[in-house]
Each structure stands twice: as structure tokens, then as C-alpha cells.
């Protein structure tokens, strides 16, 4: 059944590419011959680039190859930026500030939309050319700013708890932990292996881990009115979970240097029982000899029950300074089409933004975690949406990292952070 389904999927993507090819051949006017550079008009056809972080799955290049075969006059070249999200943003900002046309389509972290839109570094997209009702509502919202759509939802994300089911079974543990207390109890029963890992280096991953710890304790980093709310008992409980984790040894000391790939490699080497990680790891860990067939995923635990994961993901935007914006728009439609998203899920295990894919039996058979992931996505919380997001996240990282390394107390870190976030969140 699965082989037949995937065969139908493959045939479907050919139809999608053919449709996009026809649209490219028939659409537009003589204006499409112009570059459309540095304007809000989506005109111009010809070669373009896609700028994003490292293609860890290798499947983005595969998707580009499929597009290029059908569009020999409008080829796409992948520009791989560093693994670090912070460095990716820095290079995209530098490209925009110099008004360079080197980057056409930008693979934006969902928290960058407000900044890039407010600074007019990206061009508004036509909402009526996307069937937004088919996408997860939370994913659509990440690409909007002041009522306009500046980025199309491509890949969504929510943190999951990866766990070694074989080690839990040996210890007589029948279900993964639902609360932080259960996590600590489970860790005490499994000896000789590090307990819990996440992303705790001073970068964007730390903001995600801190935000979901606060949300999972019933708090919020920034409230619905856009005001900081971290000097609270709930925020303290969330930060204390992480601080005490390091102090007690529940979180290995080396995890203070972990980014996503560091954490993945530690889990795959057998150094961790539990890991907070994004969905992309499923496909990679399923090939790792030490953990293949020995792990599963569950919702993140929280203070009193299942936690509230941080909403992650990536959207596709068009640089305001790029040439060939009409080609860029068609390429974005291709990447966010149903068959392309389906094939990407199969190849990479990255979470799609189209809601219907989570309910397809053939996909659930191949990826049993899809119902868990969908539930996590529906419960996920966004990070602070701010035009000065880079300053906001930098302040969070400095405060939290100081507490995790013992340089400041939890109370002092949160009090200082509350003060710093005040002016940074004013719109």
C-alpha cells in the first residue's frame, strides 16, 4: 500500500510541475521581460536563487533539480548559508542593506517576518494566489505582517520529545513522561546515560527552549498586548527547570554548547535518553546505527502536564531587490504545493504546512509520529513577534545563558530581562 501510494505521489508531482510550467509560459505581459528589481511588482522571468541554511536532508536540491528540469530558462541555484540561524539572518540582512540582487527567494525563520517586512526587505505576496485555507492556521500567521502576506508557509515546526524507548522498557517504564517531575523520576531509573538534552548554546535555539519552558509552566514571554511578562512565578518555574537540570546533572554539562546538530549527534551516539528536538531529526536518526528502531517521540512534558512547544518553521519570501520576481513567485508556489510538500515529508521528515497531509494513512504508516506532531503544532506557541526581534532574542539569550551557567540567579536574570525587553518590544 505504501509503495503504491508513493508511486501515485511521484506521478502527482509531475503534474504539479507541468501546471507551473504552463502558468509560466502563458502568464504575464511584456512587463514580465523586465527584471522587477527593487520594486513591489512581481515581474521578470529568468534564473533565480534560493538562499537558506545548510540543506541537511539534501532534498531541497532534489526539489530544485525537478524544477530546473521543467524550467531550463528559469533555473534555480541553491545558496547554502551557515547552519546557525543567527548567521543566516545576518547574511540575509547584509544582502538587503546593500540592496544586492544575489538572493531571490529567502528561506526565512518564522520569527523574522516582522523585521524583514517592516524594513521593506521583502515584497508582499498576493494572498489570492495561495489557497491559505488548506494550510495550518498557525503557519499562515507566521508569514503575515499588518494584514499583508510577506512569506508563504513552507515548513512548520514544533518541539518534540525524542526518547529511547528501549532504555525506558529496560527500566520498567511503560510510557514517556508527561511532566517535568516524571522526567526527573525516569532519569533516576536509567543509569550510565545522560538524561535530557536540548539546545542551550547562546543562539536562537536557546530562545526556543526557554520560551517553551516558560509556556509549559503556564507563563508567557510576551503577552497578547506585546508587553514583556517574564518577571513572574510561571517564568521563574520554567527557567528553574532548566537551571536545576544543569545543577543536578539531569542535563549533561556539555549540553550548554548544544545547537540542533550537536544535540542530534549526541542522541544518535547513545549519550542521551531524552532530547528536545525538531521533527527533522526523525529521518536522520532512523538511519543512525545506535538508535535506529530504538527511539520514538512524544509531546514535550510540562510543569503539570504536556508542555507547550515553541512554534518554529520556515517561510518563503521574495527579496525586494531581486530580479525575476515572477519566476520566484511560481517557484514558491511549486515548493508549497501539496505534492511537493508530500514528497519533502517522505524524503526529510520535515513537518509540512498543509494540514491534510497529517491525516493521510500512507504517510501515517511511514511516519507514525504525525498525529503527535499535529497535536504539538496545534498546541504550539509563537515566539515574540517584534520588528526588533534580533534585539529581543539577543536579550533573552544573554539573560538565560547567564542563569544556566550560574553567573546570575534566576530572579536577577528575569528581572533584568523584564527591564531590557520593555523598550525593545515597543512597536
> CATH superfamily of the largest domain, called what?
Periplasmic binding protein-like II
Beta content comes to: 5-15%
Order of helices and strands: HEHEHEHHEEEEHHEHHHEHEEHHEHHHH
Distance between the termini: 53 Å
Poorly predicted sequence stretches spanning 5 or more consecutive residues: 1-37
Overall mean pLDDT: 90
From the spread of the alpha carbons, the general shape counts as globular
Question: Which strand order does the major sheet show?
Answer: 2-1-3-11-6-12
- Helix count from the secondary structure assignment: 17
Give the biggest beta sheet: 6 strands, mixed
Task: Quote the CATH topology of the largest domain.
Answer: D-Maltodextrin-Binding Protein, domain 2
Number of strands: 12
Overall tally of domains? 2
The CATH architecture designation of the largest domain is 3-Layer(aba) Sandwich
CATH structural class of the largest domain: Alpha Beta
Q: In short, what is this structure?
A:
With 427 residues, the chain is an alpha/beta fold. It contains 17 helices and twelve strands.
Describe the structure.
The chain contains 17 helices and 12 strands. The protein is an alpha/beta fold and 427 residues long. It has 2 domains: 2-157 and 312-379, Periplasmic binding protein-like II (D-Maltodextrin-Binding Protein, domain 2, 3-Layer(aba) Sandwich); 160-309 and 386-424, Periplasmic binding protein-like II (D-Maltodextrin-Binding Protein, domain 2). Strands 2-1-3-11-6-12 form a 6-stranded mixed β-sheet, sandwiched between helices. It has a 4-stranded mixed β-sheet with strand order 8-9-7-10. A two-stranded antiparallel sheet has the order 4-5. Mean pLDDT is 90; it is low at 1-37.
